[in-house]
What does this fold into?
Amino acid sequence: MLHNQVNMKYNKLLLFVLLAVICSSCATIINKPNQNIKLRANQETKLIVQNDTLNAPKGETINFSVLRKRPFDLGVLKNGEIQTLSIETKTPTYYWANAWTYGIGFVVDEISKDKLIYPNRIYLDLSENQVSYLPYFPMSEERLKLKNQISITPTALVGFYHPGIEVGYQRLLGQNFALQANYRHMLSANNEFARNASGFRVELNPKFYFRNEEKSRIYSSLSLEFLRKDHDAEFSFSVPENFDDDDFSNDIIDEILPVEKRFFSITPRIGIEHYLSDRLVLDAFFGIGLRYRETRVLGVNPNYEFFSEDDWFMVRYDSNRPSNRLGVNFDMNFRISWVF
It folds into this structure.
């Protein structure tokens, strides 16, 4: 009897926890009634924040807290007059994690009206007659004056399919555009994709920056790539014992033959350049595009037939077999750059 009562208590507790998890929502739980905001202005000014007066020295960061339940109107003193800015709200990224509660979290957030937040950073521009703001701290002019980057791609050295030494150069054109060129010298590896490999890979990558934040720049780009690689690979062939006899049995032999590959790729990307220090930058990107490939195998006996064991993927055979084809190019990588 006591055992059953204990089980019932644990079952009720478990049910309570499950209901709390299922019926809760990300924004309602995470968002607090007050939100801390950092503000910076390009000129010295005074601010009125929910009936409080604050001093904002030029270029210095000040901190204050606002109630999220109230409209956030920021008063800015300019030319002896108070100009009012209505700070817009946004939906936080973690709001979309409500999908794991089968959508119940979305309903809770809508009812509680706690899903919206203000920008964590506000930058005031008082250089014009009308005061404006950015929902982030912009990149400094000193940093934008450094227009050159040289880069390396560390993952190129350990690449399984196209290992090599890759270097790049980037030139900033204005504040929102850059042109990047990369070169990879192919290296040999002890596998079926780069044995005795030689060749190169060249890439031209124009970039457009959506936003120049204090330490990060989000961009879109279009990668135009040509790859030339020659290497050796092992192939299996089925060989008839008697070419003139229709009733032959097949023998399987293995040969190592030279392979010539040529790739032409065009890949839209989304990326971010993040400043690890004043000069060191991490450039990470992701993209999906198209790749046209030409593959030739040299020295094949015309009486032989290519043979591949039955498996799910046949990656080695599919990569090295003779073909001219168009496919999808999945591109995800990062580079380390030095700015000067």
User: Anything to note?
Assistant: The mean pLDDT is 85.
